[in-house]
């Protein structure tokens, strides 16, 4: 076990670096340990997950170089024409994002924002993304920079950051963690039998009682397939349930149940058949367990809860089959608990022990110790090693195939506590890299469960509900509808994710759409390949999520012995006492704008000094397998405009990805529409009445993944042409893209009175292209190739007709060749000089 002095030294060093920008040695060591040349991520033997708490992507990493953050040129404009970064309240006050100096304000002590399901859904406002202030308070606009959080920025510089990673649901912690461990949040709860078939657990309180949820969890799938796994925490949270929490729920529960528990309850083919058995099967277990809880879980020591417990972040404590109240501590004290434990099958006991792996073997694991800091102040810290068992398993070669780590509150990055989370992450990395033979075969994935209430500018992708959009056949949108809230369940807002491994080094960006269920899809693919079968499946994951969200494998690259230059670390200067002193600093301010400010931002969003700016430059980007299309045309006979959207698979076949699209139209009170397209399932078409637009002039904007956007404007008097933006195929290989796009013009009306089109580059400095509309008796189609080599396969151009101000088509995005490339040079203000190596 490390000494207290070592613990405090590491903690204070991390905290000081958090304030002033130092880089811990664990990152350098992790970067320096090479796997065997020629290996891929499929050669890994250990997958380690650490889900931290309550930070949005823009809030934590929005100024990081190369990611889709505050410089995003494909931002959403709101109904009032303001960019999405300007958020107004119901009183007409408008706020822009505000940086929170972690050293000179008390931001680390000032708490978070409202983030219950009602205000998570409310901030999204059906996709308009314009109610953040009313729902969250102006604090929602706070963000950090590298100076404030150098550790996470350093990890991104050294490994791979995912800038399209979304939490799973528009909720708080427990629902998202249910998605993380089980793939869903809808299921049977023994406390609510009447609504169990349709009940979606959108609120933390529905997970608050231990052992009441009954659907299958992914660790049970691993257990059934003999895959080793553990969930590591210092202590379980059930040790800290308060008497009043139990007493409020106990009478209603005990009234319903009066006998033995049901093993593998979720396995019943008909949930209602199982329900009928509950009164005879559960209460004999529940009654003594809750009596135990009422007697013993009276530890209301807030310091111990913050420093030692798992903060109720191990959602497996909510599931019946894990018997969460039968902790080792209780079994030592209460004969009822020990008796019930002995009656359980060995597999059930093993399930419990793996899910609630604690540090009980450390004699000081339940103790705090007061220390004196350099500035003379004192504070309480854990007396034991909060990573004791994880450290022992790594040291002894006993790390399982799959591990989940759950930090205590103080180390979870949650805004209710000072931000000591980077120390915990660094210490996990330090433990893994202390054994090079372990690290070179390990994948360490760090993500965050939800955004708290902090703003993020990217609308989360959701399925169409109640007719507001369409989905490809086979996608059941009902299972993604939160009926009690008349809202999609998710996706939720973007949160950070970092993939730290020997096969994801080099400061890359991955822009595939992902969510918490992606971690389970990754385990499916990884473990089935290891076992040579397809037996490991999470049946809870919906078709919507399997269509829209990837499996994280795109974040990895083979290691072939490349030498990568590691970013130069900066010096450490200050210690933990500075963070403590920050508690007495002033509250962070807000960025309240006046009308002139707003008008200035509107006129030049990307160059405004009133908005945050990202670090300049580009990053290497993982190859993606999106083949996206969106077009529109007016139909004079029906007085409508029709859009067509889709995800092709002609290039990448079965490996091609589906996608979701947001469609904004009218820019008034017209509800945005959502579309979900399976790869190769054909185009989704939908129509809009021109009479629903001002002056019968349509204006439609489509947003998709990785900067994909289309903008269509016109009237029923559009010229008699059809325009499409497609991808150029290589002459020598019809399944390979060149990286260029083609504008294909089809002459539909030979009496057209315009002579040419103009293609105007909006971002990358290329001259206008004139496209003559020459009519041939043999061919009514004109193709214009647009070379994108200068812009690294990124594009942003408008197709217009001289003299016709109402008609135009704007196309933006990136040609996904499936090969590694670079992030958007326009977003990164790239000077066109040095490019990072694609290794």
Question: What are the SSEs and their pairings?
Answer:
Elements: H1 4-20, H2 25-32, E1 46-52, H3 57-61, E2 87-88, E3 94-96, E4 98-99, H4 117-124, H5 132-136, E5 142-143, H6 150-158, E6 160-162, H7 173-182, H8 218-224, E7 229-232, H9 243-256, H10 271-281, H11 283-296, H12 302-308, H13 328-333, H14 335-343, H15 346-355, E8 368-372, E9 378-382, H16 388-395, E10 402-405, H17 421-433, H18 436-439, E11 442-448, E12 469-471, E13 481-482, E14 487-488, E15 497-500, E16 508-510, H19 516-531, H20 543-548, H21 576-581, E17 591-593, H22 595-603, E18 620-621, E19 628-635, E20 640-647, E21 659-665, E22 673-677, E23 684-689, E24 698-703, E25 709-714, E26 721-730, E27 733-747, E28 756-761, E29 769-772, E30 781-786, E31 794-801, E32 804-814, E33 821-822
Parallel strand pairs: 1-10, 1-11, 4-5, 6-16, 7-10, 12-22
Antiparallel strand pairs: 2-3, 3-17, 6-15, 8-9, 11-15, 13-14, 18-33, 19-20, 20-23, 21-22, 21-24, 24-25, 25-32, 26-27, 27-30, 28-29, 28-31, 31-32
Helix pairs in contact: 1-17, 2-17, 7-19, 9-11
Number of strands: 33
The largest β sheet comes out as: 9 strands, mixed
Uncertain segments are 11-22, 243-285, 292-299, 565-575
Give the averaged pLDDT, no decimals.
87
Strand order of the largest sheet: 12-22-21-24-25-32-31-28-29
Strand content: 15-25%
Radius of gyration: 28 Å
Shape: globular
Percent helix among the residues?
A: 10-25%
Q: Tally the structural domains.
A: 2
Distance between the terminal alpha carbons, to the nearest Å? 38 Å
Give me the number of helical elements: 22
What structural class should be given to the helix and strand makeup? alpha+beta
